[in-house]
User: Which sequence fits this backbone?
């Protein structure tokens, strides 16, 4: 199943969008980043990856993807010209305002589809504020984490490696240009350095991505393949929707009625496409 650009809110006529939002009570919001990914991937890799998964999730939930803008919180990539970054307060303000408009349209549930580690701390705080101010239930899907977790050997958790190359292939294959790749930083050194900043107990705060990859990227993008990338994107979307419905069901007593078509906790809601991709 391909992407679903027809689920983008800005592409729809107002009456169509209003009907989808009101009928589902749900909106999907994609959150990514505009930052350097070497010479072989576009600056918008994270934004495109989030958008690709968000469209698939919105299709499955029969709703729309509301635009938030492509830029995220990525100050540590600014040493590479062309990279952009929002302050956490700016991203918070944008998200809270967009959520306010969605709530006014009849939305009570929002699924944030994120593909950028630098956004995660801000999204948690912003979602909490939006929930408190607008009476929403917001779930955050960390789709880069999900992709790696489902396929740890295949989808490496590097920067501009196989996982992110596959994500762009699933969005628009022509944006991947492996013949233009610049020198990669050492894979083992990059993984070791990145792991330090990903610790869950005690960890440093990243200031400059040169501390992880002196050339800006590391990984094995040549391992990604377009057909397989599509299968993986579908499986990730299936996983997100299954977990979203399970969580909605678990919270139903607090948030009101269970949405139509929810999956009871403990049941595997993966589609045949996802199951095939997992094999």
Assistant:
């Amino acid at each position: 199943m391909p992407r679903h650009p027809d689920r983008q809110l800005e592409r729809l006529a107002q009456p169509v969008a209003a009907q989808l939002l009101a009928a589902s009570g749900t909106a999907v919001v994609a959150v990514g980043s505009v930052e350097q990914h070497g010479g072989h991937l576009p600056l918008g890799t994270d934004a495109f990856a989030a958008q690709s998964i968000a469209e698939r999730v919105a299709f499955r939930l029969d709703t729309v993807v509301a635009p938030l803008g492509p830029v995220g919180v990525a100050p540590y990539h600014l040493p590479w010209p062309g990279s952009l970054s929002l302050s956490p307060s700016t991203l918070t303000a944008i998200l809270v305002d967009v959520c306010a408009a969605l709530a006014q349209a009849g939305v009570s549930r929002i699924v944030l589809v994120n593909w950028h580690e630098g956004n995660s701390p801000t999204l948690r705080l912003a979602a909490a504020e939006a929930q408190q101010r607008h009476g929403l239930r917001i779930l955050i899907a960390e789709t880069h984490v999900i992709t790696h977790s489902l396929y740890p050997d295949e989808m490496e958790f590097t920067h501009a490696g196989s996982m992110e190359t596959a994500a762009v292939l699933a969005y628009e294959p022509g944006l991947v240009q492996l013949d233009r790749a610049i020198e990669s930083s050492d894979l083992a050194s990059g993984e070791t350095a990145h792991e330090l900043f990903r610790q869950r107990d005690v960890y440093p705060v990243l200031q400059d991505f040169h501390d992880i990859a002196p050339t800006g990227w590391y990984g094995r993008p040549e391992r990604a393949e377009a057909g397989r990338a599509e299968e993986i994107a579908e499986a990730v979307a299936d996983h997100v929707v299954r977990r979203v419905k399970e969580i909605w069901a678990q919270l139903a007593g607090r948030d009101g009625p269970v949405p139509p078509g929810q999956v009871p906790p403990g049941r595997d809601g993966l589609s045949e496409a996802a199951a095939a991709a997992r094999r």
Strands lie at 26-31, 65-66, 109-114, 137-142. Residues 257-279 have pLDDT under 50 and may be disordered. Residues 21 and 67 are 14 Å apart (CA to CA).
